[in-house]
Amino acid sequence: MMKKMVIGLAVMGLLCASASPLLAGGIINKSNLSADYFRSLTRHASTDAADIVAYNPAGVMKMENGIYLKGDVLYINKDYSNDVSTQTTFPYSLVTGMEGDYSSDEPSIVPGLFAVYKEDKWSGFFAVTIPGGGGTVKYDEGNARTAALGTAFILNGLGAAFENQRLDAKSFDIAYTLGGAYQINDMFSVSGGLRYVDAHQEFTGQVNLLTASYSVDLERNATGLGYFLGLNIAPSDKLNIGFLYQSNTELDYESDVSEDNSPGNLITTNVGWLDGTKEREDLPGLIGLGVSYAFTPKIRVEVDYTRYLESAAEWEGVRFTGDEGDSWEVGASLTYTFNPQWRASIGYLHTDIVDIEPESLLVEAPELDAHTIGVGVVFSPTPQWQISFGYTDVSYDSVTTDTFTSRAPEGTELEKHVTAFSLGLQYHF
């Protein structure tokens, strides 16, 4: 039983290493890649800033000629909690002291970089974004998973499960996008290019038992190459339609592991992540469609739909059953232009995570349906400068587990709430 408990702790930590703390998206993908996305939550039909190379790349042909450089910073406040109930089914009833509300509030800072060179009939562009992962998760006093493991430990007569524990994990997928666009005529433009993804996961965990201390240091790294295609249709000056397809990116994570006081590498031997071993977890492709319409010169409305092609991705992780996907999002925004210097936006986004069961959720950062509100302004002090400010509030639909598993006791309520601020600076040469 001692071995099983240590193994269980390792599984907890290794899964925590893949936590994705960003706002919206699918099970793996994240859609908040820029400051202008934060203020509107719809970018698939936009043509007003360089960040559209990540959302509507063919739309850059609607921008003025010249060079655009854009840098964004996203600051994300995360409040994640596991409310562990005392009402669980015998023989797994929680031991006194294991119940409680466990939380993590570690913030994340996420950058974005975009560059566009536009001529009359063609353009080239480059971007650096974070389409998956994006930050750190810390549960300094444990969480639902440690409560489940500790309860099983104590019920088997092995005394107090832990004296103390520590979990530090971070995860980020850095995407480097290189592509171009061509204007066929006044109505149609097309785009295409490549996206190289460098994925990194890192975990340090330690548990002090009454009789021994165990620790694990883990790094997992993978790289992959995908492609994208885009189409922009502008039937009139008032109406614009954008389409984006991104391919699946194959990622084979290789483990670099060290263990302390673990005879025969007991922990990673049993979870199958020995030093040098590989496990595949792709970054799924997506389809994005947006329609924007200007009712007046001052009022523009945009509606977006994004579908994450999760069913076409390959995930070998222990918590995936193969039935997940395809998650989707739908959003709408209104932009009001006061004058050439100022415009303001407000947007709403609904995120629907498809076919992942409560007992399979990552309790450290559960994948939950969400309702997001975004507001912000764009200030142009001169024709060359564009400064974007955004604020986003994300309310997630909580989920309560109905089965006692190694991830969480029965009756655990998984909750998240996120607020975020963004700043973007763009210069047009």
- Estimated share of beta-strand residues: over 45%
Give me the number of helical elements.
4
What characterizes the major β-sheet? 14 strands, antiparallel, barrel
Strand/helix succession: HHEEEEHEEEEEHEEEEEEEEE
Distance from first to last alpha carbon: 66 Å
Structural shape:
elongated
Order of strands, widest sheet:
1-3-4-5-6-7-8-11-12-13-14-15-16-18
Based on CA atoms alone, the radius of gyration comes out at 23 Å
pLDDT below 50 for ≥5 consecutive residues: which ranges?
1-21
Kindly state the percentage of residues in helix: under 10%
Mean of the pLDDT scores? 84
How many DSSP-defined strands?
18
Q: Helices and strands in order, then pairings?
A:
Layout: H1 2-16, H2 35-40, E1 66-84, E2 100-104, E3 108-118, E4 122-138, H3 144-155, E5 164-183, E6 188-208, E7 213-233, E8 239-246, E9 252-260, H4 266-271, E10 278-280, E11 285-294, E12 299-309, E13 328-339, E14 342-352, E15 370-379, E16 385-396, E17 399-400, E18 413-428
